[in-house]
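Example 3.2
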Amino acid sequence: MSDAHADRARRTGAASRRRTVRRRRAAAAGALLAILIAVLLASQGSSRHGASEGASRRSSRRSDQAAARAQAPRALVTYAGQLPQPIQDAAVAASSASSALLIGGLDQSDRSSTQIVRLGGSQGQRIGSLAAPLHDATASALGGAVFLLGGGSLESFASILRVSAGGQAQPAGRLPTPASDVASAQIDGTIYIVGGYTGQVPLRTILAWRPGQPPRIAALLPQPVRYAAVAAQRGGLVIAGGTTGTTADRDVYRFDPASGRVALLARLPHPLTHAAAVRVRGSVLVIGGRGAELNAQTRQILAISPSGAVSLAGELPRALSDLAAVTLGEEALLAGGRDSGGHVRGEILRIRVR
């Protein structure tokens, strides 16, 4: 072969090899591009699916709350009777299936009271006295007795008293710190005490207490709270409104004793403190209360469903705060309170839900 022919052959072979390499590179690039497109499409599909699931959950929650509002209970309030004297900021708990004990409170002269009053049907009868006057305590029923926790007069108290159905009070324990402005509810043999005020600082604790045992911290609220409206619902606590000491709050929390979690459940239509709460026929009723101002009382009775739907269930005959409320069977009794004119009330009211 001549040198010219050999040179042409070498050039032809090199060109052929380069074309082969380019074809292989193009094929590899095409495969890589196809993989990238597939991954991108899968990612977009997953994002769309995740977003769709999130939107579906939100839509379902809104639908549940809308359905709950549509089926909201209606609260009918009627006059039931009179207390022996007007009272506000009293503690109350059921002492039997048909009666309750109303304990302590503030009278019309703004003095703390020692009274223990039995509420039953259409009347209130004084049946005993505390050793020392107090107000802003909380009471819960457990094991056939009523337990009075905290409260205060010139200072906050740490006492826990056992009050018999006959009106006799005796020491049963102590809270970790003095606490007035507290609320409580009983679940499965444990009394849960929410928030309060030591006399110097507001509290953000949820305490758990059983007779014969020291109280323990079951959970911490997102912020301190005084004068919250608290009731048990479906194995947990509903904690509505209250104040840190300066402003009223709209938040409604649910505390789950099983997990120890506190989660935001709902928001009230307006800031509310010094309200009462009971559970009647599955719904928690938040009754009366006021805003941050002393004379900003409301007549509203709000219903909170287990799903967190908040609706207007009814109205009180007059705007009231600082009233006591207790569930007796399928109805609730309300006692006392303070009206927007600053008068302390002595009526006993009955709430029936339909």
